Amino acid sequence: MNTxxxxxxxxxxxGSIYHLAIRPExxxxxxxxxxxxxxxxxxxxxxxxxxxxxxxxxFVTHTGYYNGQKISVVSTGIGTDNIDIVINELDALVxxxxxxxxxxxxxxxxxxxxxxxxxxxxxxxxxDTFLLSEKVIGFDGMINFYAGIEPxxxxxxxxxxxxxxxxxxxxxxxYVVSASPSxxxxxxxxxxxxxxxxxxxxxxxxxxxxxxxxxxPEINKKITGFSYGKYKITNYEMExxxxxxxxxMLGHEAVTICVIIANRVTKTFSKDYHPKVKQLIQYTxxxxxx
Length: 290
Known about the structure:
With 290 residues, the chain is an alpha/beta fold. The protein has helices spanning 38-44, 80-95, 155-165, 181-187, 219-225, 240-250, 274-288, and strands at residues 30-34, 49-56, 59-66, 69-75, 96-97, 102-103, 111-120, 130-138, 175-178, 192-198, 227-228, 231-237, 253-263, 268-269.
């Protein structure tokens, strides 16, 4: 059995995984992911009890119980680069023997539910809507660094989008990944469903212009007009493509629900989205533990 070297799997002196600084017993099988570390406490405030509170860098972990079921909430920070760290380390906690540095024979599956905020790209997706991502288009290129992505991507959708957009070859090639069908069924009742773009930035990569011009000033207009079968692109965010792709390759389930706080087509912004975020947390926790 191959042993993973110290340089590849870094373990802290206390036995915790390098960036997250948590141990296997610190997490549940159902994990809510949030970008903002301050939102971890917002989520865990709904718990009946909290058994774990740990933080390292931007990564905050709270674990507790809700309706008698163990749930964790972990902050990822912004971007797919952080998702690469978080998902690989959470997987390592349950599927690698950290003392022996060997992969366990029996696979342990986790459920990841990302709760976030997002900008809408369709007029019929108003602010304060709950948007569940059925598919994600990754503009980040992150999972292309891994072998074996072919079974987890929707290549026909990808090719249709690349051709429609006349994609700039200097940019990372987009990839398309679907959410977990079982989590879509579980959490889809009070949500608008759509296709999300995960962008590697907030300004130019999402078509915003401040002092710098962008390569394609019409990018959002073209994105809004794209359709593939029943699917239209509904919103931007910055994490879900890597979340869905890595989860599928590692044998986990993942889904994202965001509160739409801005609409890029109607140029509107939520007057106060914080109550809607709390409503989304309550809805998600109830569904996960029903």
